[in-house]
Amino acid sequence: MFRFRFIFLSIILIVLLCLSVQAEPKRYISFNGEFYFDYPEDWMQLDYRLVDHFLQLNKAGRTTLDYEAAFCPIVSDPFWSNAYFICSIDTVGDLSGKQIDSVLNDLSKSFGVGIKYFPVADFMTDLKSNAPSYDRDQKVITIINDIYEKQKLLKRHLYAMKFYEKGIATFYFYAPDSIFESSTEIFNNVLHSFIPGNIDSILPKEKLVVADLDEEDINKESVSVDDNESSNTGLPVAIFIALVVVIIAVLRRFKKKNS
Questions:
Q1: Helices 235-258 and 2-22 meet at what angle, rounded to 10?
Q2: 121-138, pLDDT tens digit by residue?
Q3: Which residues contact 137 (CB under 8 A, 6 or more apart)?
């Protein structure tokens, strides 16, 4: 009985390890805008040709077509049938407080309502609001719009404008009405993971070989680099294999005793 419990717990541990590895978010780095943000591990960056074709069919404006990147869940087919988001940038430089207030006033006039001032996380709980909201700490404007087609609610759109040192990063989050509320947590995490500048610190470091090393030293250096990389990336696989070996050993011992 103990052996079966051990095997069962080992299988659960393997599953949890696999899930923990898959839960690591992916990171997108914008060299044009000099910022980066994280998105879910089970999402992917879309091919530009596919997104361009979709936007052109929907008669998107020039500003939308000049986007930075687009993302959606890996399982989405087509991508617009599920949640997805598009990011664009405008490198106008660091806007002053007065310039941001001017943008807010223009939005207020366009929507005919005053600007709401509270954090993005709080705005996510007020999904029925169609008025612009501004988070002073995060410097983020958010607006939720409903998109209709033939008087039928097709999807919902969260528009987020992030002010930072290099300019403005704009996120267009879309999701069908049925999953929009559950998708807002993902959208919120993307916004909060936005980090401007300091791109060099997160880029993979390359080890350069000194030119005056002899061939034997170069081979040793190359081997050490490969060993380090394989040990870092292969740790989850090694754990998985070790657990499988333990389980097989227990099963063989149990079978031998029974026979």
A1: 160
A2: 766 666 566 778 899 889
A3: 119
